[in-house]
Amino acid sequence: MKARIIVTLKTGVLDPQGKAIESALKSFGIDSVEGVRQGKVFDLEVNASDRASAEAALKTACEKLLANTVVENYAIEIA
Amino acid sequence: MKARIIVTLKTGVLDPQGKAIESALKSFGIDSVEGVRQGKVFDLEVNASDRASAEAALKTACEKLLANTVVENYAIEIA
C-alpha cells in the first residue's frame, strides 16, 4: 500500500532554512507569506498484509532513520 | 491562513536520494518498504483576505522559488 511520511521541525526549533526562504520570497515581491518552515516528505510503497503492520514498519523507519525525534515530528499517512 | 506546500519529483525523474534511503532502511531490517521518493514540505502562514488570493500568492511562490517545475510537481493545501 502507498504511504506518505511528513517530517517537520518541532515548534520552538529554529529553522534558518525557512527564514532564508521567507526572505527570498519577499525579495520576489511575495510579501503576504510568513512563518515559513521547511520539512521533508517521503512517498513510499509498503508491502504489508494489513494497515497495522504497515504502520508499525513505518513507525520503526521514522524512529530509526527518517526523523530525528529530538527536534522533529513525523506524521504517517497510509492511503 | 495556514498553508502547506508539498513539492515532489515528477514520475520518471530519477531519485538517487530516495534510493539511498531505501537501501538504508533495508540495512536496518525494514524490508517491506520500496519505491521511496523524497520531496519537500513547506508550512507557512499567508496573509490574504480570501482563499483565492492566498492560492494565487502561493502559486507564484511555487513557480518562482519553491519548485523547479521542469522536474517537480507541487501541491498547495490551504487549511
Lateral strand order in the biggest sheet of chain A: 2-1-3
Number of strands of chain A: 3
The backbone outline of chain A, from C-alpha atoms, is: elongated
The share of residues in extended strands of chain A comes to 35-45%
Q: Please describe the biggest sheet of chain A, giving its number of strands, its sense, and whether it closes into a barrel.
A: 3 strands, antiparallel
What proportion of the residues of chain A is helical, as a percent range? 25-40%
| CATH class (first level) name of chain A | Alpha Beta
Low-confidence stretches of chain A: none
Q: For the CA atoms, what is the radius of gyration of chain A?
A: 16 Å
Structural class of chain A: alpha+beta
Name the biggest interface.
A-B, 34 and 34 residues
State the helix count of chain A. 2
CATH A-level architecture of chain A:
2-Layer Sandwich
GO cellular component, one term (chains A, B): cytoplasm
Subunit structure (chains A, B): Part of the FGAM synthase complex composed of 1 PurL, 1 PurQ and 2 PurS subunits.
Protein name (chains A, B): Phosphoribosylformylglycinamidine synthase subunit PurS
EC number (chains A, B): 6.3.5.3
